[in-house]
Specification:
The chain has 167 residues and is an alpha/beta fold. The protein has a domain at 6-121: 3-Layer(aba) Sandwich (Rossmann fold), CATH 3.40.50.2300. The protein has seven helices and five strands; from the N terminus they run E-H-H-E-H-E-H-E-H-E-H-H. It has helices at residues 15-24, 26-29, 40-52, 71-80, 98-107, 120-138, 151-166, and strands spanning 6-11, 34-37, 56-62, 88-93, 112-115. Strands 2-1-3-4-5 form a five-stranded parallel β-sheet, sandwiched between helices. Helix 4 packs parallel to helix 5 (98-107). The radius of gyration is 16 Å and the shape is globular. The chain starts with 5 loop residues before the first strand and ends with a helix.
Amino acid sequence: MERSDIYILCIEDEQEVLDAVVRDLEKLEEQFPVETANSAEEAREVIEKLLDDGKKVGLILCDHILPGDNGVELLIELHKDERTHDSRKVLLTGQAGLDDTVRALNEARLHHYIPKPWTREELLEVAVNLLTDFVIEQEEDILPYMITLDAEKLSESIRTRRSISDE
């Protein structure tokens, strides 16, 4: 399977938690390279490097409590940046209060909220669904993603695209 130019970025300051997130996403890593960051500042650096190298950030999984800027502030900032506006954003936290969560939903257009502790199945299901939507929206050729992502949804998108372009 060929690695795509679409990356998953996991932002978490607790190494054990970060390792668990990466481990739970292992099934996707063969096609979607996973990058990690321990702070909002490090996340910005990783994103800049990926974008400078012509890569895309398809999925951002972000903790709320981080050193420096918190996760909600970072996700709002990334939503406002046209280069990461379309990235799928997930708040993965046990500590965001209702106000912060509502801000993330409204201002960062959060795609999903996963409370800690999570299950591997839940995290993987959310990641697959969001990456499938990202690929359908952003990629011309979605066939290479059939094995890893939601094949039914991708097939439907291919059929819909074909019927639109055939007219």
